[in-house]
What does this fold into?
Amino acid sequence: MNILFIATVYDHLAVFHKPYINYFQEQGYTVHVAGSISMGRKDELEAIGAICHDISFDKSVLSKRNLKACKELNRLFNDIHYELIHVHTPIASFLTRFVLKNKKMQGPVVYTAHGFHFYNGAPLKNWLIYFSSEKIAAKWTDHLITINQEDYENSVRLGYSSKNVSLVHGVGVEFEKKEQHEVFDLKKFLGVPNEAILIGYVAELNENKNHQFLLNNWKRIKNEFENAYLLIIGIGGLENELKDFVNREQLRDVMFLGYRKDVPILLNQIDIVTLLSFREGLPKSIMEAMSKKIPCVVSNTRGMRDLIKNEKNGYVVEQGDNEQLYNAFKQLLTSPALRSEMGQESYTMVQPYLMGNVMQEYADIYKKLLSKTDFTTNR
It folds into this structure.
């Protein structure tokens, strides 16, 4: 009785899907995972008992490695029968469904779209490549899981019916663990005064996460609010470029904390969280902030507007609107009472997204697929 989880890189499965691997293991299944080792974390999956299969996926659509990946997938499905295959990430999910389309002896295929690469405002090439490929792959998909309203609505355009698409509340935010109550004085560690107001930006340092939008406005914010401090948490290809900009523009109190395994502990002492991405599915960093009663400033982007309601539990600003961004931070930096009020509202609004509730949503889908009472295979 085997279950298979597939993503382009093992890293994705290690970050988001270990609870679901554990779920199947508790049900008595043997769980296999497949992905590329290019970003590491395979050891974490092996440590929880998952059987790993290295597949030569490449994130580049036209990479020759993906032809090799198809051959490796074909061998895998010839050797092992799976009761259910759960696919993630665009490249891995398309190639897996393509290989499986003629494998009638394999179980149903469920695909979680963590944020379609086509979305309102996306470049035309995204629609040409990703919409077209997803429309083709819909014929080979037994069930689609979406995690934001816009993607759910787009699923109809892909050809899914209400019976084989679900809208769930993301991948789940874990309840706070005991070790997250660890005593750690973040302000002392940073060398900032007790009255400092800490703004956290938790994201990979890349073009999509759009740190530059805030940095372009930081001098104005800092000049008016001397007690504001910006903590950039994460690593990525733009790290040197962003640091050079901060130094060149002489931006004060912008701190790069790098990769941190203790983000939940840091959030206990952060006052405002921001994320200004061009594209998101349903950002976990914002859900984690909400669970810590933190108000958020986000861009008007798919997924983020599902979580943050303007002037209710934070502010939703238009991309490139410097005045709107400045005013959002001004309101929160000026009023501790407003931060507290919005933070409490965030905590209330995040409840459906907590792991226990989301796990039940997934469990219901899994049970229906495995029983095949409400679903019929598309192969």
Remarks:
- The mean pLDDT is 93.
- The longest helix spans residues 355-371.
